[in-house]
Amino acid sequence: MPNLLGPEDPPVFQIAHEAGSSAFVIACDHAGRDLPKSLGDLGLTETELSTHIGWDIGIASVARMVSEQLDAYLQLNNYSRLVIDTNRPPGSPQSVLTLSESTRIPGNEGLTRAQIEQREREVFWPYHNQLAGEFERRTRLGLPTVFVALHSFTPVYLGMVRQWDAGVLYQRDARLAKHMLGHLQADPDLRVGDNEPYRVSDATDYSVVVYGEGRGIPHVEIELRQDLIVDTAGQSVWADRLVRALQAMPAF
């Protein structure tokens, strides 16, 4: 079977502030919308690929601003979640979608197990091996570590309007999440969801479960509504909010 990624394809991930001095490690699992040339356009139009089904609109810029202000390690996935979702457990029904919201993904239909494993091998695992290596490096050096996963969500999903400006997500360990909720909800102009519009679970999430819960470190997943971070001004406002909240984090 030919390789999924060729020499003209971009790398799987980008890193900013690799030697960051802060305790924070930031990941953007859905930062990019690239497709391997071998997959063409997956049978989708450019308009479809540019929507939220392909990536988390606006979040990469927010993450870069947060990373810059905190001097925090940041890792961003370059490939569209339509290739393989790096925040879903391998083998899960949501790992390689054939239908996203109401849009068919023709290029993902009828894949063999070998084809799916190739996407895991060439995109999912390189991204996560790098991220896991950073956590292991910090453990060896005895560095304090806090994990922050950044995502964005569409204002309307399957015809339902989402009322929240942001969401704070967690599962078993709510230490950092409760702090972030309290900090953000103190602003009366913000509508902040407590495990809304999503919630973390073993079946539907990977990064927070593996790197936060699995390592027993403080962690949180933040979701920002995409229409609030489509331009530099909105991205800067939300980056500043998140930085202030994270800098005010108590010792756990």
Total discrete domains? 1
Alpha-beta content class: alpha/beta
The rough form would be described as globular
Number of helices: 6
**End-to-end distance, in Å?**
49 Å
CATH structural fold name: Aminopeptidase
Q: What ranges have pLDDT less than 50 throughout 5 or more consecutive residues?
A: none
Highest CATH level, the class: Alpha Beta
Helicity level: 25-40%
List keywords for this structure.
seven-stranded mixed β-sheet; single chain; two-stranded antiparallel ribbon; Aminopeptidase; 6 helices; 11 strands; alpha/beta; 252 residues
Brief sketch in words of this structure:
With 252 residues, the protein is α/β, with parallel strands linked by helices.
Written description of the protein model:
This protein has helices spanning 46-49, 59-70, 113-140, 175-185, 207-213, 232-247, and strands at 13-16, 24-28, 73-77, 99-100, 103-104, 146-153, 156-157, 160-161, 166-169, 192-194, 219-225. By secondary structure, the protein is an alpha/beta fold. The protein has a single domain (13-247), classed as Aminopeptidase, CATH 3.40.630. A 7-stranded mixed sheet has the order 1-3-2-6-11-9-10, sandwiched between helices. Helix 2 (59-70) packs across helix 6 (232-247). The relative contact order is 0.17. The model has no long low-confidence stretch (mean pLDDT 97).
